[in-house]
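During the first year of the project, the team set up a workflow for recording each protein of interest as an amino acid sequence followed immediately by a discrete structure-token representation. This format lets reviewers and collaborators read both layers of information side by side without switching files. As required by the reporting guidelines, we include two representative entries from the current panel. The first entry is reproduced here exactly as it appears in our internal archive.
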Amino acid sequence: MPELPDVEGFRQVLESCAKGRVIRGVDVRDAGVLHGVDARRLRDALEGRRFGTPERHGKWLLARTGGPTLVLHFGMTGRLVCGRADDPVEAHDRVLFTLGGGRQLRFRDQRKLQGLWLAHDEADIDRLLGRQGPDALAVDRREFESVLASRRGALKTALTDQSVLAGLGNLLADEILWRARLRPDRPARDLAETDRRRLYSEMRRTLRSSVSAGCVPPRDSWLTGHRDERDPRCPRCGTGLRRSRMGGRGTVWCPRCQPDG
């Protein structure tokens, strides 16, 4: 599932492919990815407009045009692809934006769990993103500690709740908690101040590395690089990793590096 680093990569694709270019045509090949707008209204609103500088908040992407804003969420399998207008269309290309200079931006999505919205003004954007917490890459330490200290429930559940902190998903949360040596089922508001500060520092480090890679990289030195192995071992201490489910999510941690309490 795309997480913050993936969506930041899509933002960079959008910026390099489309920023400053006029939208010559909008071809909706599958209206099932449109939310609150039909294909005709999407074409009428965007054709002739020019893409500006895109923005990201958590897992949401805002493609501004100086008028209406195209809002994208990638669900589990969505992505943005930049190519040429005469490139062959693939089976999962749902919406094609033909741009000036012969370029084409494509929203490609196999499972269609989220998709595209059209926001006419800032009030529309606020309605779509109003329940989102602060962006995980932009939040400062004071606000991060504040939202955790007031949060009931398990630590991992808090980190992956988009209304608490926007952008973290399953892989990032497990990686960050492993690096911070904190069990995922610890109560979030019971952390000591030193724990919260360490957690924030490890989140920042993990996000910076992941954004540079364009994903949560499955490196040998990372928990992510071992979580799907048949007999997964902690890359730090060699202990067998534990698996469980929290909030319906597969969760992986090291019982030695991430002890109780």
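The second entry, processed by the same pipeline in the following quarter, appears below.
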Amino acid sequence: MTVKHLKILHQHNADIHQTFEKDGHDVVQGLVATPKTLPPKYFYDDRGSELFEQICELPEYYPTRTEAWILNKYADEIADITGSCELVELGSGSSTKTHYLLNAYQKVANSLTKSTPDAFSYIPIDVSGGILKTTVLHLQKKYPDLILEGLIGTYDEALLYLGKNHSRSRMIFFLGSSIGNFNESESNKFLNKVSHALTQGDYFLLGIDLQKPKDILEAAYNDAQQVTAAFNLNMLAHLNWRFQGNFDLNLFKHQAIYNEIDHQIEMYLHAQVEHQVSLDILDLKVQFQAGESILTEISRKFDLAKVQSQLRSQGLETVKIWTDPQKWFGLVLCQVL
């Protein structure tokens, strides 16, 4: 495959080992804390990304198909509002839902004169190099006129790399309600970085999962096929590989519960017996008691009015909101004014 359309962002660091050291620092902090936690970014090695793609196809997991329905119905309207712009996707994965937007923006590009050669451009960003390479190859074939550059890295690395140095209008989009994995303070910092990668008149499109009954939410994260359980446990396998660890995945059990006070799904790994785990690269030994838990992810469920207020506080003014008929999911288009 042609790799000229891919850039590995962490290779631009002065010392690649600093990246791993920083990553390891948050693992140490989380596992020595009480209660124990791990950052959800460690879900996404290549295997984790594959499992998440499977989760998106599950009958219980409504967010993906609901957001896809909204995009299918309103992508042309979104493109009409923003006009031709550079498309930047954070956490692109396989870019499956993105095809609705790419189709819409291709129409906009085709309506312009040939004097605008960069009218149809897309920058997918993902931490998983494997899935991003596959995605870029597929997009090259499906959209031969698409100007494409895939960035392998974290959100922070990508937003820092992109900066404000763009000559044409830009729309950053963040789908799947992935912002729900951040607590309120973290999401404010994230939105601030997004805002700083945009200039006046640029756009930000945000997908958010809305509040709904507990039984629907808990079923979505405790699926009958146990794909989400495998996804959750794979985080430990990723840590084993990355930090020379000896987590025994058979000694942990997945559970997701809905916290109705904080309006968030909380995903846990429960230790089934007392035992010790080592992560040699981090020079860390962790003791687990039987029944002790690791919080691996939160997934906040949102109120549209509060989200608009939060976006406004970061310099992002809402232009339009689209939802499905049940109001289970929302797409918020905002603009830097």
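For the second entry, the following points were noted during internal review. The chain has a mean pLDDT of 93. The longest strand covers residues 252-259. Both points are flagged for discussion at the upcoming steering committee meeting.
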